[in-house]
Every structure is written in structure tokens, then in C-alpha cells.
Specification:
With 699 residues, this protein is an alpha+beta fold. The protein has 4 domains: 3-134, no CATH class; 153-341 and 353-462, Aminopeptidase, CATH 3.40.630; 466-581, Immunoglobulin-like, CATH 2.60.40; 592-697, Immunoglobulins (Immunoglobulin-like), CATH 2.60.40.10. It is 26% helix and 25% strand. It is built from 14 helices and 30 strands. An 8-stranded mixed beta sheet has the order 5-6-8-7-9-12-10-11, sandwiched between helices. It has a 5-stranded mixed beta sheet with strand order 14-20-19-16-17, with helices on one face. Helix 6 packs parallel to helix 8 and helix 12 (379-393) runs antiparallel to helix 14 (435-456). The protein is elongated. Bound molecules: zinc ion. The site of zinc ion (ZN) has 4 residues, from loops.
């Protein structure tokens, strides 16, 4: 062991041992095993008290790193992901658990830092509270973080989904965790494969794994939610339908379940739990330095480490860990090799398939290379794809080269070896992310990014260069419609080229097209241009329309696909809605009309349509005035019986009407009374005198 490594490891061991003693003493005290003595107690308690006080002053100290720009901060976040405890882009600082060598590295890079004393004290107190709350919990969610399923809950939900949707999903064992592999308990590595098994064509594949680093709570919850959406929305959402019918989506929720079990008790476990390495300190191997191809490519101690107690310990050989073996071999069975063996050999732009590795945190979307500052030979595709994904989750997109290289990461096998588009998300702002932030921001934003990934997985280097469909409206409905055969449908669709973090000039929409039933990307599908437009295609956002004749559509469900091209003839991903040909239910009008003298209020907002939406309201006020508003008010010129007609139209062009007659009166005159010497005002108010109510259905 050379002196550098010795200093490196002894620092970690010392830190960890001190911390362990501290935790043991504090937890013993808190559970009542050792009573905290007061002055009247006997002297033999003095020893632990002194030790406790000493440890309180000697807990591991974290480092506050101070920046003068966010660009350097993001590079720091990539390189020091393993050491990061907090990052605050607004206030330009990060808190990290840095070794002496890593601090020296910052000196070399002219980045300033100081002891994070106050932060450290607060942090250890918080961790201790969490550990106590989580003690003994197995199956009831993570205490304080109930939005994140435990390992057991996640595995149960994956199994339950595969049982509930047997033709759309399969629960596959792709390998073992280290503990399972060594007969010490542990877990199978389980993948939920989602695809319609009745459709047996060759399909584009998206492979996602999450929470490879055990302490990263949000990633596994996000991918589990994605699986729920794909299966539970299959019957109601047309995009979900075609994605599951014509794509394979493979999700490994927990890539490091052994480590996660430790992290569920609020310990910041990153690596797997391979006890052959640093068993009394920071145990295990960093799985994200253990992948082959670029494993230990740059032997600088920073890209990955040979020190067993380092958070970036690379393992004794490439794919030495069962978790890395399981994932690597699964990737090799999913994807064919699309790339030559040289670093500069590009995969063809038409390469199908995509690999996502979901981590937290730092709000980044990253792509290869990470072992070199040189862009990969597929950089133009990665830039287009990464910038699009980052638009959906509102993160910062960039190549995964930070302040210095990293090697042995998960994209080594998928991109490095095979040329498959491989990206990493760094979700959110914390390892133990607050549930409200996860539920309100991280989950919804990143589900959009995952849906886009699935759509783009057919040609991830090319499709992101084209536009997306942001609106499909059929007779005014954006959620699909039911019409009787032969009814004309008015299709309106909006396309956008600007849903990207890239700022480029001159990207305009060239055209939009639709197909029905046959997926629009198939050569055999009948594609019809959506010709209606304002005529000058000069914008990043264009709206097109066309009337579709449904005479040739059989009764039952159909899917309408739309996609578009930009000015460079680059096609984007499709979007779809359902068209149902069948008996359409008429809408139900609700007519409310109330008057005070000649002033009247009208309101049709209680109207409804059981199989669609109401797209038009038409009021006729006794032939004196009309309105197309849902509600409002009018003033009649004179009193009389007034006939009020309301006609509503639904998205299948089906109409229904309602009417009433109301007596409208002049305001009463002010009566003079000599006996009282004053005036009284007497108003007659007639509210809703409904003489008769007509309801007619046309069509
Ligand atoms: Zn990570």
C-alpha cells in the first residue's frame, strides 16, 4: 500500500469508527440502556459520559465548497456525486464529505472550501433522529419518507402488477444481489418487462434501472410509478396503449437492494454490501465504477478508486459484483452491438434502443463520455436527446464529464460496448428527498421525461431532432371521442420544435400528418397530410387542421396518430388519441335563468356529456338577443313573457336543446303616501317561473 492510499483509507476508517462509536453511544442512551447520569449518580458512569462528549466534538466534519459560477458547480456535482450531501445552486455552495486527497484536488482546481461545522452538527443530529424513527421497520414505508416504497414493498408491487396484467408484463429474475449470491439473505434482481405479448414484432427496447446507489430514495419510486402508469393507463390513454403494444420497457427498480436495506434506516449507504471490502467501515463496491469496457481506464484514484473504503471503490475486477454482472448481461441480451470497437466509432444514427440509469441528486441529464472530455462520436444525437429530456424534467443537460473523468460507469456497457443511447438522470436536490418535493415536482416532471424516452427509444439519436405534437383535438375534445359512423371529425393539431433546452434559430415546422390504426412510423401505414394551416410556416409552433370522414371506420375503437417534420425534413415522435365509432350519447342541457325585473342571469354550466365534452353553447333570448357564452347576464328592454332557448353541441356534433318561458316585469313604481309622509319601495321579484320546459334531441 503506498502512502497516498494509506492516508486516504486511514482517514476514512478513523472517521467511520468515530462515527460508529458516537452512534452506538447515542442510541444506547436514547433507548434507555445507559441512563445519562446526573451529579448524584455513582461515578462508574463517568466513562461513557466523557466518551459521549468527546464524540460530540469529533464527529466527521463535512466540507463546504464555495463557487463563483454554476457551471463549475455542475461539474463538481458530477465528479463528487459520491461525496455530495447538499448542493445549493442559488447560493453557490455545496456540502460534501471529502477526503484529504479530494480537498487537495480542489486546491489544484482553485476551488475554495471550508469546514461546514454548523451544517455537520445539524446533519448528525438529524440522521440520529431518522435512525431512531426507522428502527425495526420493514414493511411500512420508510418512516418520514412514506412516498418511497421499501425494497419488500417494491418487489411486492412489481409481482402484483405482473399478476394483474399477465399479457402486458412479465416479472423476470436477472441475477442476484451480493448477499443472495453469498447465501447471506439478500434479494433477486427483478425486472418488470412491460409489453403486449400478443404483438410479437421486433420492438424498440427501453431499459431503465434505478437506485443503484442505495441512499438515493427517489429513483426507485419514480420508475415504480412509471410501471404503474404504463399498465394501469393502458386502456384509457392512447399514447400508453401504443407504447406498450409496440415497445418493450424493462425496469429494474432496485439495482442495489442489499445496500438499500441499510439506507432505509437513514444510513447514507452508497455501495453494495460486499463484506470482503472495508467490512468495518464504508463497506462494499461502488457499482457505478464496476462496469466493464472503461473499467479502471484512468488510474488516477479519482475516476475510480482502488481503496476498498472509498465511496468510489471500483472492485477487484470489471464486473466483479453480481449486481453489475446481472445488469451487464441483461443489457447484452437486450441489445445487439451497434458500434465498432474504437472510441471514435459512432453507432448508426438509426440505432434502436435506449438505456436510462436513474440516480439522485443534482437536477442533471447526462450522457457519455464520462471517461474523457472528448464528446462521443454520437454526440449530436446525445445533445438533441439530452436537451429534449431536460426540457421535460427542467434539469440541466450536459456531457457527463465533470471536473475530471469517471470510469466503469453503467453506460460503459450500453454505449461504450454496444453503442446504445445511454443517459443518466440525477433527480432532485437531496438523497433523502422530502416527499412533497418528490410528489409535486420530481415525479410529474420526470414521468414526462420517461414517457418521452419510451417514445424516442425507436431511434433515440434521430427522433429528438424532430418536432413533438403538443395538441390533438377532435371536434374540440383532447381526450378522444365517440362518434357514430359517417360523422365528420374536425382534427386540430399543434406541433412544436421548441420543446428543448437548445436555443437554435431557424427551426420551423414543415408539415404534419396523421394515420388511423396502423402506427404512423410503419412504411405500410396510410399517412395523410394535415393540410389546414395559416399558410406561412415560419414559426416554431404551428397549428394544422383537417376534416376526417369516418364512413370507412368500422364500429369499435381506433387510434389516430399524428407526427410532424421540421424544415430539415426531420421527423419527431408521434402522439395519439382514441376514436370510438359507436352510438353517441346526446349531451344533457342544464338551463338556469333568473330575473330581477328586466335584468336576468343565464347559466348552462350544469350541462354534461356522458361520453365526451360539450363544445358549443347557443342561447336565444326570446329572439331579442343571442349568446354563445356558458353563462352571463342580459337586460330586456320591456316586460313580457320571454321564451329562452339553449342548444348545446358535444364533440361528436350531437346536439340537445332546452327551453323555458319566464315572465319578466317592469320595476314597481314608487308609491306616494300622504299619511306616512314618506315613500316605500316595493320590488316584485320573479325567480324562475318555469311554465314549460322543452327538451329535444336532434340526430
Ligand atoms: Zn448515484
Amino acid at each position: 500500500m503506498n502512502t497516498l492510499v494509506k492516508r486516504f483509507s486511514s482517514k476514512f476508517v478513523t472517521q467511520y469508527t468515530r462515527w460508529l462509536i458516537y452512534v452506538v453511544v447515542v442510541s444506547l442512551c436514547s433507548t434507555g440502556t445507559i441512563a445519562l447520569p446526573n451529579k448524584t449518580q455513582s461515578t462508574h458512569f463517568k466513562q461513557p459520559v466523557m466518551q459521549l462528549q468527546m464524540q460530540n466534538n469529533n464527529e466527521p466534519k463535512f466540507t463546504k465548497v464555495i463557487f463563483n459560477n454554476t457551471k463549475t458547480m455542475r461539474k463538481f456535482a458530477i465528479s463528487f456525486h459520491h461525496a455530495l450531501l447538499e448542493i445549493n445552486y442559488r447560493s453557490l455552495y455545496a456540502i460534501a464529505d471529502l477526503s484529504i486527497n479530494e480537498q487537495k484536488k480542489l486546491d489544484d482546481l482553485n476551488i475554495s472550501y471550508q469546514d461546514a461545522e454548523e451544517w455537520s452538527g445539524r446533519y448528525w443530529r438529524f440522521q440520529e433522529q431518522l435512525k431512531q424513527k426507522n428502527a425495526g421497520k420493514q414493511l411500512a414505508g420508510i418512516v418520514g419518507f412514506e412516498c418511497y416504497a421499501t425494497v419488500e414493498e417494491t418487489l411486492q408491487q412489481g409481482l402484483d402488477l405482473s399478476v394483474a396484467y399477465p399479457t402486458l408484463s412479465e416479472w423476470i429474475d436477472i441475477g442476484d444481489s451480493w448477499k443472495k449470491d453469498n447465501n447471506k439473505g439478500g434479494y433477486d434482481l427483478m425486472v418488470l418487462k412491460i409489453t403486449n405479448q400478443y404483438m410479437s414484432e421486433e420492438k424498440p427496447k427501453l431499459f431503465i434501472h434505478s437506485s443503484m446507489h442505495a441512499r438515493e430514495y427517489a429513483p426507485a419510486a419514480l420508475t415504480l410509478e412509471f410501471a404503474h402508469r404504463l399498465l394501469e393507463d393502458y386502456n384509457t390513454d392512447a399514447d400508453t396503449r401504443w407504447l406498450v403494444d409496440h415497445h418493450e420497457i424493462h425496469i429494474l427498480f432496485h439495482m442495489n437492494p442489499d445496500g438499500r436495506k441499510i439506507a432505509e434506516t437513514a444510513v447514507l449507504q452508497r455501495k453494495n454490501t460486499n463484506e470482503n471490502h472495508c467490512s468495518t467501515g464504508k463497506v462494499g463496491v461502488d457499482l457505478n465504477r464496476n462496469f466493464a469496457y472503461f473499467w479502471n481506464y484512468i488510474d488516477d484514484g479519482f475516476s475510480s478508486s482502488g481503496n476498498e473504503c472509498s465511496e468510489i471503490f471500483r472492485g477487484i475486477s470489471a464486473e466483479s459484483e453480481p449486481e453489475t454482472q446481472g445488469v451487464s448481461n441483461y443489457i447484452r441480451t437486450l441489445f445487439a452491438d451497434a458500434r465498432g470497437d474504437l472510441e471514435d466509432d459512432a453507432a448508426p444514427e438509426t440505432t434502436s434502443g435506449m438505456h436510462l440509469d436513474i440516480h439522485s441528486y443534482s437536477e442533471l441529464v447526462l450522457w457519455p463520455y464520462g471517461h474523457s472530455s472528448q464528446p462521443s462520436p454520437n454526440d449530436s444525437g446525445f445533445v438533441a436527446l439530452g436537451n429534449k429530456l431536460a426540457w421535460f424534467n427542467n434539469y440541466t443537460p450536459q456531457q457527463s464529464f465533470g471536473l475530471y473523468p469517471t470510469d466503469g460507469t453503467s453506460d460503459d456497457v450500453s454505449y461504450g460496448e454496444l453503442g446504445i443511447a445511454a443517459l443518466t438522470f440525477e433527480l432532485g436536490t437531496s438523497f433523502f428527498q422530502d416527499c412533497s418535493v418528490y410528489n409535486n415536482t420530481i415525479k410529474p416532471d420526470n414521468l414526462k421525461a420517461l414517457y418521452y424516452s419510451a417514445k424516442a427509444s425507436a431511434m433515440p439519436y434521430l427522433l429528438p431532432k424532430g418536432p413533438e405534437v403538443s395538441l390533438i383535438s377532435l371536434n374540440g375534445s383532447e381526450t378522444g371521442i365517440t362518434v357514430s359512423q359517417g360523422t365528420n371529425i374536425n382534427l386540430i393539431s399543434t406541433l412544436k420544435t421548441n420543446q428543448t433546452k437548445l436555443s437554435e434559430s431557424g427551426r420551423t415546422i414543415l408539415k404534419a400528418e396523421f394515420s388511423i390504426d396502423a402506427p404512423i412510423w410503419l412504411q405500410s401505414s396510410i399517412k395523410t397530410e394535415i393540410t389546414g394551416n395559416d399558410g406561412n410556416l415560419t414559426s416554431e409552433i404551428e397549428t394544422f387542421d383537417i376534416t376526417i370522414d369516418t364512413s370507412n371506420l368500422s364500429s369499435g375503437e381506433h387510434i389516430l396518430y399524428v407526427r410532424g417534420y421540421n424544415q430539415n425534413q426531420q421527423v419527431g415522435v408521434p402522439s395519439a388519441v382514441f376514436i370510438n365509432i359507436g352510438e353517441n350519447n346526446s349531451p344533457t342541457p342544464s338551463l338556469v335563468f333568473t330575473c330581477t325585473n328586466l335584468s336576468c342571469n343565464y347559466d348552462a354550466s350544469g350541462s354534461s356529456d356522458s361520453d365526451g365534452n360539450i363544445t358549443n353553447y347557443l342561447w336565444d333570448f326570446n329572439g331579442e338577443e343571442t349568446s354563445t357564452s356558458i353563462s352571463g347576464s342580459i337586460n330586456f328592454a320591456s316586460a313580457s313573457n320571454k321564451t329562452i332557448n339553449l342548444t348545446i353541441t358535444d364533440d361528436s356534433n350531437n346536439t340537445a336543446a332546452s327551453a323555458l318561458v319566464i315572465t319578466v316585469t317592469e320595476p314597481a313604481l314608487i308609491e306616494e303616501s300622504s299619511s306616512s309622509g314618506g315613500g316605500t319601495i316595493n320590488f316584485f321579484t320573479i325567480i324562475l317561473l318555469m311554465l314549460f320546459r322543452l327538451k329535444t334531441h336532434k340526430k
